[in-house]
Amino acid sequence: MKKTLIAMIGAVALSTTAVEAKDWEVVRLAVDVPYEPFEYKAPDGSLTGFEIDLGNAVCEEMKVKCEWVIQAWDGIIPGLLARKYDAIFSSMSINEDRAKKVLFSEPYYNTPTGFFGPKASEVDPAKPETLKGLRVGVQRGTIQDTYATDNYSKVAEIKRYTTGDDLVVDLHGGRLDVVVIDFPVGVSTIIEVEKGADFKVLGDNVQLGEGVGVAARKRDGELIEMFNKALATVKTNGVYDKINEKYFDYSIKK
Q: Which helix (H) or strand (E) holds 30?
């Protein structure tokens, strides 16, 4: 399935009429914050995180100016199609449903999905019956939303949130029993914080989606080709690895 989807994406990109790179002097990149450690605001208000650093490095390789546009997740594809920005660089997992609406680059990272809950929880996500009557939090419109809905909605209440921060606040406040979220995000925002000792990872992680890619409008195949070339370069010249090591003690390179 993965090879088929990537081949389909590449074929669409290559069939698009070529445009000289100099036509893209400025590229507006949409990002949904906060989604620590991938994209969030530093104390001084500036954007930072793994994808901000990687996006800036890729734009430098492409010799274009990056302009980051903050956009809530549930409107991020409509905003792209409405030309509010040129591409989405915001942990968007590649899947067949989204590929019907946007054009994806090759994947540039892939991380597992994790389950988080109170220390005393006896939930095993592999056994849906252990979630009976519980409140399960997800970020609306994500692959975790789809997974939780498909697997737990018959036994549990699925509560959908606009941001990952809202999920964490309600878990820490006892208003959620389980949170389903990207594993590194859950570790950094649920476990490695002041209240983290009261929470734990529940069961085994699962791998969802085809990896994360840059998304652009279908007509902008030349832009996706620019991203593919730049991503391939930074993955091999040491730039990607240096950024990876800044945020993770393991490789998420795809």
A: strand 26-31
Expressed in angstroms, the distance from the first to the final Cα of the chain is 16
Task: Give 69-93 pLDDT, tens digit per residue.
Answer: 999 999 999 999 999 999 999 999 9
Burial class (CB in 10 A: 0-12, 13-18, 19+), 116: buried
CA distance 190 to 144: 16
Query: Could you read off the pLDDT of 139-163 as tens digits, one per residue?
Result: 999 999 999 999 999 999 999 999 8
Nearest to 107 by CA among 214, 213, 252, 224: 213
Provide the CA 156 distance to its chain's centre, in angstroms: 25
Q: How far apart are CA 107 and CA 10, in angstroms?
A: 12
For residue 34, what are its two tokens?
A: 């906060």
Tokens of 53: 């650093």
The angle formed by the CA atoms of residues 43, 247 and 36, to the nearest 5 degrees, is: 50
For residues 10-34, b (16+ Cβ closer than 10 Å) or e, as one string? beebeebeeeeeeebeebebbbbbb
**Which DSSP letter does residue 84 get?**
S
